[in-house]
């Protein structure tokens, strides 16, 4: 991602930190500071906290999937374990008078995430591919089952809860207010994200990529593929544990849901949606997912259906995820031909948005028709109120969808042509 | 007397009932360029895989500078100073050419599993990698993804990765496979250049390359070495002629 490594001249310089590396982080920090000034409501803060936690979790997941080539179906285990231990420590602070300022709690949670990753990784990282995936699935199921059985630790179905405000004050903050928790969370978000980014630039981080690409070759260069994966796995477990601790701090309750397979599945989805090939991918994925989940969730009950469609569409058409789509535009940009794309993009925007909205309308009307009370067909969509049981509205939605999709299909070749032109260097190479 | 750089003692490998390598004895002196030739299916690649630790031998041993390394993992053998290239191009396709070379350097330059160094700040690694890129004529391709290189360039990169770590014993598995005449000439020059003062073992089908490069040639047929001598002696050997053309002649003779 850094521009620094792109040109031979700057790559060899002795400057450890280049401006182009620091600038995005500085902007991100500034942005995170300003965010709560703009969105002040408690629910907005909750959404932002949730986002930050998901970002840390997704970044830690991408250390496995994107950086190390390990497809895990059980990453929630390490977040959950970290969270449960953090919660127990929180309760020790409250009841046994353990001295621990709340902002240090994620370190404890991270340590436990790391410990479990160390133990489980010792056998799961021997092989990548299907073997690793199946072990991660098995361990995920095992720990999730344990969480119901071992009530003393996991609290059974109710889970365990605590009170974050009982610890010693930290520079006058007792973390009773949502905004104090926000700052705690985003400081950890920055720390975790920067550390994970730096990890990817270390020798072991680069060799993790090498093992992902070609484990056999890496072995013939002196690296044990198992050790390389194991180290990535342990570090990833630490940050998952940090995410779990932040969850514990924010929501003050942890349940089986935090480490079950559904959570493991959704982090895979989030990371993939954002784009596994780029450091920023999981960040985008986490933001989009949380927005869809919370904001879209306010408007429609079938938000997860849309998410599923988005996921399938992404896998089929944009395997690089959101970050991949953005990165696709780097070449036209560097050739100074980005303007060739704006015309076709604007042209397709209206029919594309219309087709998405009208297809959503079809789904919503069908859903309303099926689940609405008998006789109560009144439905409101996009500010229009109509009878969902009649055929007019449904018919209209289908017709609009068909027309707009037809228009999209007509414009597609034009976009393709513009795309080829924009990516063509112009002179022969 | 110093131990040979590479020695095989009664090395055998069976896959089930199939005896692929049957008691190979071979000594490669330090600094020697040793070629292995033989018809298809003679077990040349298996021999390489035995030496480099991809397979464990069924019996017998592999000795590097007198030390028995049979049964060790590839990375352990590599750390003892043996590096290999592959018949099928085996690079890191999603990393840049520069990064491919750098991966070959990290272990031997002492960075190992380090997570406390920033890789871009390590001047020594960067310089060494640039130097190797220069040697294999890929400086202009530095920042391209390795997977996007032309075939011949990928083969050169393959050799670059192999020699990067500074191993003193280099095994090259058909480095010229699938190359045009002019490309082959370039690669042979490259091999000669980068294996200076090193022990080289090479498997190759192109006889021109073999007789051009090798100090000694061993002929492997059905898992056995039937001849191991200087190129001229091998060229004159009756046994070798039989092996390459023989079976059919014998059949006709009967």
From TrEMBL, chain B:
SUPFAM superfamilies, alphabetized: P-loop containing nucleoside triphosphate hydrolases
Record keywords: ATP-binding, Nucleotide-binding, Transport
Stored Pfam families: ABC_tran (PF00005)
PROSITE patterns: ABC_TRANSPORTER_2
Regions crossing the membrane: none
Protein name in UniProt: ABC transporter ATP-binding protein
Nucleotide-binding as UniProt keyword: yes
Originating species: Phaeobacter gallaeciensis
Domain ABC transporter: 6-247
């Amino acid at each position: 991602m850094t521009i620094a490594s792109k040109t031979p001249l700057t790559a060899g310089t002795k400057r450890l930190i280049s401006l182009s590396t620091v600038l995005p982080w500085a902007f991100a920090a500034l942005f995170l500071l300003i965010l709560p000034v703009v969105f002040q409501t408690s629910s907005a803060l909750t959404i932002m906290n949730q986002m930050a936690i998901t970002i840390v979790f997704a970044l830690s997941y991408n250390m496995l999937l994107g950086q190390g080539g390990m497809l895990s179906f059980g990453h929630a285990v390490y977040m959950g374990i970290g969270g449960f231990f953090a919660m127990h420590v929180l309760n020790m602070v409250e009841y046994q008078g353990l001295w621990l300022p709340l902002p240090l709690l994620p370190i404890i949670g991270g340590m436990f995430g790391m410990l479990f990753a160390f133990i489980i990784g010792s056998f799961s990282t021997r092989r990548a591919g299907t073997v690793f995936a199946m072990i991660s699935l098995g361990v995920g199921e095992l720990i999730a089952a344990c969480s119901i059985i071992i009530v003393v630790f996991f609290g059974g179905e109710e889970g365990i809860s605590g009170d974050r405000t009982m610890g010693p004050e930290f520079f006058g903050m007792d973390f009773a207010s949502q905004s104090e928790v926000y700052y705690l969370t985003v400081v950890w978000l920055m720390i975790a994200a920067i550390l994970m980014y730096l990890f990817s630039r270390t020798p072991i981080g680069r060799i993790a990529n090498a093992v992902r690409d070609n484990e056999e070759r890496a072995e013939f260069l002196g690296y044990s593929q198992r050790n390389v994966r194991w180290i990535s796995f342990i570090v990833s477990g630490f940050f998952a544990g940090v995410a779990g601790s932040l969850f514990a701090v924010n929501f003050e309750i942890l349940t089986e849901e935090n480490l079950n397979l559904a959570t493991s599945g959704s982090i895979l989805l989030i990371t993939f949606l954002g784009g596994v090939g780029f450091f920023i991918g999981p960040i985008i994925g986490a933001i989009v997912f949380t927005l869809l989940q919370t904001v879209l969730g306010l408007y429609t009950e079938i938000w997860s259906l849309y998410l599923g469609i988005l996921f399938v569409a992404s896998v089929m058409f944009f395997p690089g995820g959101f970050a991949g789509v953005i990165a696709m535009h780097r070449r036209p940009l560097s050739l100074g031909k980005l303007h060739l794309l704006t015309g076709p993009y604007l042209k397709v925007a209206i029919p594309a948005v219309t087709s998405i909205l009208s297809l959503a309308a079809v789904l919503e009307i069908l859903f309303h028709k099926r689940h609405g009370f008998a006789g109560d067909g009144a439905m409101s969509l996009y500010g229009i109120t109509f009878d969902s049981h009649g055929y007019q509205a449904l018919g209209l939605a289908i017709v609009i969808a068909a027309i707009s999709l037809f228009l999209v299909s007509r414009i597609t070749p034009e976009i393709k042509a513009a795309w080829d032109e924009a990516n063509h260097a112009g002179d022969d190479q | 007397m110093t131990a040979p750089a590479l020695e095989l003692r009664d090395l055998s490998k069976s896959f089930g009932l199939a005896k692929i390598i049957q008691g190979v004895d071979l000594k490669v002196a330090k600094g020697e360029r040793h070629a292995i030739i033989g018809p298809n299916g003679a077990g040349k690649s298996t021999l390489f895989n035995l030496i480099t630790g991809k397979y464990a031998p069924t019996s017998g041993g592999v000795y590097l500078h007198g030390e028995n390394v049979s049964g060790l993992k590839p990375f352990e053998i590599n750390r003892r100073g043996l590096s290999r290239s592959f018949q099928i191009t085996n690079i890191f396709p999603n990393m840049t050419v520069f990064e491919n070379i750098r991966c070959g350097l990290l272990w031997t330059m002492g960075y190992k599993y380090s997570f406390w160094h920033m890789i871009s700040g390590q001047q020594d690694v960067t310089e060494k990698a640039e130097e190797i890129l220069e040697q294999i004529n890929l400086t202009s391709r530095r920042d391209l993804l390795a997977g996007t290189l032309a075939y011949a360039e990928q083969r050169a990169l393959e050799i670059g990765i192999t020699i990067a770590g500074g191993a003193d014993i280099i095994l090259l598995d058909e480095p010229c496979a699938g190359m045009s005449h002019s490309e082959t000439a370039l690669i042979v020059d490259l091999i000669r250049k980068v294996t200076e003062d090193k022990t080289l073992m090479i498997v190759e089908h192109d006889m021109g390359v073999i007789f051009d490069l090798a100090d000694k040639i061993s002929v492997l047929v059905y898992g056995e070495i039937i001849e191991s001598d200087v190129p001229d002696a091998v060229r004159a050997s009756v046994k070798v002629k039989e092996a390459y053309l023989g079976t059919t002649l014998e059949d006709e003779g009967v």
